[in-house]
Amino acid sequence: MRTRITTAVLAAALTPLALTLSAPVAHAVPAAAPYDFNGDGRTDLAIGAPGATVAGQAKAGAVSVVYGSTSGPKTSTRTLLTQNTAGMPGAAEADDAFGSALASADLNTDGYADLLIGTPGEDGSDTNDGTVAIVWGSASGLSGARSLAGFFSTDYDRYGQALAAGDFDGDGDTDVAVGSTGPITLSLVDGPFSKTSTSNAGSGSGNDWWSSSNGITHLSSGDVTGDGHPRVVLHGRAAHNGAATTALADMKISNYVDWLQKLPAGFVSAVGDIDGDGHDDIAVGNDREASADPEGALGGKVTVVYGGPDGRDSGRAPLVLTQDTAGVPGAAEKGDRFGSDVCLGDVNGDGYADLAIGTAGENGSAGAVTVLYGSASGLTTNGATAYTQNTAGVPGASEQGDRFGERVTLTDHTGDRRADLTVSAPGENAGDGAVWSLRATATGPTATGSTSFGPGTTGISTAGAPSYGTALNS
């Protein structure tokens, strides 16, 4: 394995690293939970539409933010973000793909979560250089923005195609991990962050585990070891055969030797504590057939890797799930794409993270979502439930090509400490896309009272194919 770690600063090249960090931000209030942009204790919903036309510019991209309420995401209280939004860096241009990736954290520790938006198609020093915007939270929601530092523009492209935020280097400040293509496939931008200073330190890495042409395609993070220091799950494609490659990374810069642990291969992942043991667990989705990926399976699969003090718990076998697993609704069929997305959150409020699995290829790509539940002994298929647009109470109807379940998220929009289920179908209405929200209850998500809305409801043009819901809260 070859690993290249380089360090840079946004200030002059010869400035010592110790002098380039931003002045520490006062920690006067507790940091807000991710995606709580207005600090009201309810998670808000960010929806990426990277195919959206903006001011006549095709695929410039847009992001809708719908704020949480006691009844769930409330479309009447929303913010529309594009690169033409006042204060946003850059300008909307064709093929920028603003909104391709999203992440959130209270970056300046003011009590309001901030939003990170990836724009991998942005042209900078070269074509598709990519950029990332930070949009600041406040009592009235999102307002004001700046660019996230980028250090290796000549050594990467599509900067911002994957994003994650957390204190990855263990220094007490929130950092941002950014995926890209090229010799540098992973960048770490060190916190702290403020609205006025862009003088952050950073580092970058390239590794033979994944190809430079695909780079890091997906990121997730959580406290897998239980030491309060989050690790990052990296996804890419192998250089020699294009197969999915997944690894657990310790992003502390001093760790050069064993900073990566191999994980079951997949294209997406989610991290959360399924069994309540204080170690976050990892769900890896691989929606490919075995003929398309060496670790794929008929209809797709999801592998749950349990966490432990050393990262993955080597004494505990991973749990492999397909639609042929006893208790999982449906049956494994070619093209189902079980594992198109995964998300972990406590739906029923019992203290254990539950798992939502997208199956975007089900029934001619009409799509479906399955929810399985956590317990003290791990994930169980007891009580597993599947949802489609044909489920009683769910708005709309299942149609081929909708891709319901392409993205899923479990997060508390109502403030009742239960994670509501949000599902996107970017193919709905010939590529307009749409989003569904199902309220959480003590027995799981309920279709009763569920809501749905598309790009037009939140101010995004339906010209072309905006693919609303390509990205959701991660």
From TrEMBL:
Q: Which UniProt keywords apply?
A: Glycoprotein, Hydrolase, Repeat, Signal
- Entry-linked InterPro entries: FG-GAP (IPR013517), Int_alpha_beta-p (IPR013519), Integrin_alpha_N (IPR028994)
Q: Give the matching PROSITE patterns.
A: FG_GAP (PS51470)
Signal peptide positions on this chain: 1-28
Where is composition skewed (Low complexity) in this entry?
443-462
Keyword Ribonucleoprotein assigned to the entry: answer is: no
Q: Name one Pfam family in it.
A: FG-GAP
Q: Name one GO molecular function term.
A: hydrolase activity
Lineage: superkingdom:
Bacteria
Q: Where is this region: Disordered?
A: 443-474
- What name appears for this protein in its UniProt entry? Integrin-like protein
Q: Which organism is it from?
A: Streptomyces paradoxus
